[in-house]
Amino acid sequence: MSSATDTTVALPLPDSLLAALEEAEREHPEACMVLRAVRSSSGAILDFEWLWANPAAARALGRGSEFLRGRRLGELASKDGIAGRLDLLRQVVESGRPHADNFTEGDVLMQGTAVPLRDGVLLRLRDVTSAQRVEEGLRETLDWVRDVLESMPDAFFTVDTDWRLTYVNRNAAALTGRSQEELFRRVLWDACPELCGTPFERALREVAAEESYRLFELRTGRDRWHDVHVWSSGRNISTYARDITDKKRVQAERDALLAREHSGRLEAEALAQRRTHELMAARERLVQSEKLAMAGQLAAGVGHEINNPLSYVSGNLQFAVEQLTPLARLPEAGAEVQSTLNEALDALREAREGAERIRVIVRDLQTFARADELRLGPVDVHAALEFGVSMAMTHLRSRAQVERSYGQVPPALAHEARLGQVFLHLLINAAHAIPSGDFDRHRVTLTTRREGAWVLVEVSDTGLGMTPEVLQRAFEPFFTTRPVGEGSGLGLSICLGLVRSMHGELTATSIPGLGSTFQVRLPIAERPVHPGVPSVRAEEGASRKRVLVVDDEPQLTSVLRRILGRQHDVVVAHSGREALTLLEQDDAFDRIFCDLMMADLTGMDVHAELARRRPQLLSRFVFMTGGSFTDRARAFLQAVPLPRIEKPFEPGVLHALVESSPPRTG
Predict the structure, then answer these.
(1) What is the dihedral of CA 447, 452, 454, 459, to 10 degrees?
(2) DSSP β-bridge partners for residue 573
(3) Dihedral angle of Cα 490, 492, 495, 496, to the nearest 10 degrees
C-alpha cells in the first residue's frame, strides 16, 4: 500500500527479460524472486515489493506466486525472517554489490544471496538446515573420538610427513614431561631431542620409508616398559603405546623362578621350556587382543555411521561443483556474477576437501583396528602346493611317492605365502606319519577340485593314521604325540589359524593304520568389478536407462537421484520390503543399487528373496556398503559374485555401472 510520502519507482527491466527469467527459474528447486525498490518522494528506499517469485520461493514463504506479485516485503514476511533483511537489501541496491548471509525463516535455516538488478534485487534462497545438522553431527562425532583418545589409559600421537605432531593425547605428553600445548605442531625431533638416535627413531623412520608398521617393546624409563605399535596411515604416522611394566615385572619373576628350577633338574628344563613357549604364545595373543580392542570399538562404532552421512555430503558437494562450474564460465553472466560463483565454488571445494579429510580419518581408525589383517587376493592353489612339495621334498623323498590329482579350479581368495606355509606343514606332517624304508608302498596324494563357491585342496597320506581320541585333539595348541623335544604341538594349530584368517576352514579325517586326509576349503577369489572405473557422462542423444535405488537413508537416495537423474530415470525405495513390493509390480530396471545393511530387510535378505522368486533380476544388482560388516555380510560378499561400491562413492563410478548394466531379459 502506498502512502502520501512514498512512491514506487518503476523497475526499468524489459518484460522479455523478466519473462525469460521466469521461464528459466520456474522448475528450479531453489527459491528465486525479483524484488523492486519502493522509494519515497525524496528517493529513499522505504520497502521492496515482489515483481515475481518462482514456485520454490512461493513454497518457502507459504504464499502463492500470484499472491506475492505486487506485495511488499513488510506486509507478508516475519520480521525475524526475510523482512528483517530490509537494510541489507537496501545496501545491495545502493552499493551495487551482491551480498550473501544466513537467516531463519520459521523453522528453516535459509542461505540467501542478493544480487543488484537495476532498481531492485534478484534474491536466491537455499534451505541449508540439513547441511548444518550434518556438519554439527560430524563435528560432535569427531569431538567424541577425541574424548575417547584423551580418556584412554594409553599414549597415542600422530605426526605428518614433515614429522610435525598433529595430535598428542595427555598420556603421550605426560611420557615426555611436556604439555600438549608445548608439543602440538612442533617437529617431533625438536620437541623431544632425547628420542634422536634411539631405536624408537629408527622404527619411526623405517615405517615412514616403507609405509608399513612396527610392533616392539620400548624401555621408557628406568623401570618402565611400553608395548609400542607404529603404523603408516596415509599422510600420518601414528604411534600407540601401552604400559606393560607390571607384565614385565611378572615375566622377570617368572624367569627367575625358571632359572632356579633349571639349576638342579635337567628333566625340568624341558618342562620349563615348553611352559615358556606356551606363555609367550599366550602373551602374543593377549597383546594382539588388547591392541585391537580399543581401535576395533572405535572403528565399528564410528566408521559405518560416519560413512553414510559422509556419502551424501560428499555427493552433494561434488554435484554442486559440477553444476556451478559451467555457469561461472558463461561470458553473459557478467564479471560480478562470475566472481560470486567462483567464490562459491571455492567454498564448495574447500568443504569437499574437508569431507575427504574426515573420510581419511575414519579409514585410518579402521586401519588401526585391523593392522595385522592379511591382505588377501587371488592365489593359484596349484602353485602354492608345488611350493610346499619342493620345500618338503627332503622329508618325503625316503618315505613316499607324491601323486597329483589336480582339477580345473579358479584362483582362491588367500595369502600366497601363508597358504604355501600351510601346505608345507601339512606335507611335512604327512611325511612324519609314514615310516621310512617302504617308499614303494606309501603315497602322499594332492587333490584339488571346485565345490560351489569354494576351492578344495586335500593332502592325503597312507601313514599310521590317528585314533579318534588323537584326531579330536589334533588342532589343540601344544598337543603332540611325538617325543619330548621333537615337536612343539603348535603346527596344526597355527595352520588352522592361518586358514581361518583367509576365511577358509581346515578339517581332518583319519583311519588308524590306513592314513589321514587334511582338507583345506578356501573361498573362490572374486574378480574386481570396476577397479579404476573412469567417470562416465551420458552423451547427447544417448538412451536413458531406468535405475532403482534401495537405501533407508533418505539423503543418500536423494544424492543418487541427483547424480543420475539428468541422464536416467531414477526410482527410489526406502527399505528392502518396499523394494520387493515394487519389483513384484515393475521389474523393468537396468541397474539396481541396493544398500547391504538396512533396518527392516537387509540387502542380503532382498537378494535371497529375489533368488527364490525372480533370479533374473540379480545380475542387475550393485551392493552399496559403508565399511562395517557382520560375519554374515562378509560371508555373503565372498559367496555372491556381484559388484559392490564403498561409501562415499565417486559419481563417475555410478555412471559407469549404469552404462555397463547387462541387457534386460524376459
Answers:
(1) -20
(2) 550
(3) -110
CATH number, domain of 71, equals 3.30.450.20
**Strand 236-243 relative to strand 155-160: parallel, antiparallel, unpaired?**
antiparallel
| Nearest CA among 475, 509, 531, 499 for reference residue 412 | 499
- 483 and 622 in a single domain? The answer is no
Residue type, 231: W
Question: Alpha-carbon torsion 167, 170, 176, 177, what sign?
Answer: positive
Q: Are residues 622 and 652 in the same domain?
A: yes
Count how many domains the chain has: 4
- pLDDT tens digits for range 314-369: 777 777 777 777 777 777 767 777 778 778 877 877 777 777 767 655 654 544 44
Q: Flag whether the pTM goes above 0.70.
A: no
Residue 462, CA distances (Å) to 439, 465, 469 in order: 11, 8, 19
The verdict on residue 146 lying in a domain is no
Cβ neighbors of 184 (< 8 A, separation 6 or more) are 165, 167, 168
Number of H helices, E strands in the chain: 22, 23
Q: Cell 554442486 belongs to which residue?
A: 320
The residue ranges of the chain whose pLDDT is under 50 are 1-11, 285, 287-289, 291-293, 295-297, 364, 366-373, 484-485, 528-541
> Do 238 and 202 sit in the same domain of this protein?
yes
Range of the domain at 653: 546-660
Question: Residue 50 corresponds to which cell in the numbers above?
Answer: 515482489
Phi then psi dihedrals of residue 211, to 5 deg: 50, 50
pLDDT on residue 280: 67
User: Would the CA dihedral through 129, 357, 214, 154 be positive or negative?
Assistant: negative
Q: Are 207 and 213 in contact (CB under 8 A)?
A: yes
CB 46 within 8 A of CB 39: yes
Got the DSSP string for 213-269?
A: EEEEEEEEETTEEEEEEEEEETTEEEEEEEE-HHHHHHHHHHHHHHHHHHTT-HHHH
The burial of 139, by beta-carbon neighbours within 10 Å (0-12 exposed, 13-18 middle, 19 or more buried), is given as: exposed
* Last-in-domain residue among 342, 373, 404: 373
CA distance 76 to 68: 8
Q: Tens of pLDDT along 423-482?
A: 998 999 898 889 887 888 899 999 999 999 999 999 999 988 888 888 888 887 766 666
Asked whether 54 and 64 are in contact (CB, 8 A), the reply is no
Given 373, 390, 408, the domain boundary residue is 373
> Is the residue at 665 inside a domain?
no
Structural domain contains residue 144:
no
pLDDT of residue 1: 43
